Amino acid sequence: MRATDRLNLTDQIGRELQRRYGYNEIDEFLGAFEIDPPKHVTSNSKWVYSKAALAKVPENTLLKMASELNLGFQGEMISDPTPPRNWANTKLFRLFISHISRDKEKATRLKACLAPYGIIGFVAHEDIHPTLQWQGEIERALRTMDAFIAVLTPGFSASVWTQQEIGFAIGRGVKVISFKIGEDPTGFISREQALPRQRRTAEEIAKEISTLLAQDSRTADRLLAARASTLPHGAFEDDVPF
Prior knowledge:
Structural class: alpha/beta
Number of domains: 2
Number of strands: 7
Radius of gyration: 20 Å
CATH superfamily of the largest domain: Toll/interleukin-1 receptor homology (TIR) domain
Distance between the termini: 38 Å
Low-confidence stretches: none
Shape: elongated
Largest sheet: 5 strands, parallel
Number of helices: 10
Strand content: 5-15%
C-alpha cells in the first residue's frame, strides 16, 4: 500500500470511529484488533485520538477494520483481506512467487529453500487446492503478501498473468525482487537491479533473498517477527559474526 493510500485509509477509519462512537467504545473497537489506546494525546478530537492509535497498525489490520466498518477505499469497497488457503493462520513471512507455468518446478524449488528463513512462498500452480477458484486465490495472495518476487525465466514478460501480478505488486507498494534466470526485467521492475542466478544453487539464492528482505525497511520488521515467532531459538545462529 502506498503511503498516500495508507494516510487516506487511516483518515477514513478515524473519521468513522469519531462519527459512530465515544472514547470508551473506540477503545473497545481497537481492543478487538489488539490495538492499545494511544498515549499522550492532548487533543479533544476523537478523530485525532483514533488516528494516533492507528499510526503503526499493520496494513492487513487496517483493511480488516475498514471492512468491518463498511468503508469505501478509493471509491470501492475494501477488498477482502482473507489470505489464500496455504497462508491461513500462518505467522511466516508471505512471499508471492510470480512465474510462468512451464517453470513451476523452479518456483516450487525456490519456495522450499526459502522455508528455513521463516518465509512461506505462494506458488499458484502448487498452492491452489483443486476445489478452490484459482483466480480468487491468486488475488487473495496478492492482497495479503508481504513481498513479491518475479522469477524471470524466458517468456515471463510475454505472459499477461505475470504482468498483471507485477502491476498489482507495484500498485500496493510492496517490496519487489526481480530474480533474473534467463530474461532481463522489463517495464516498472526494470528500474532496480535484478538478482542474477550466476550458476548459484537454489539454497544460495534463497539466502540472498532473505538478506535483501532483512535489509529493506518495508520488510525487515515483518521478517524478523516471522522468524522470532515461528522458528526454534538459535535457528539463525550462523548469522551472528564469528
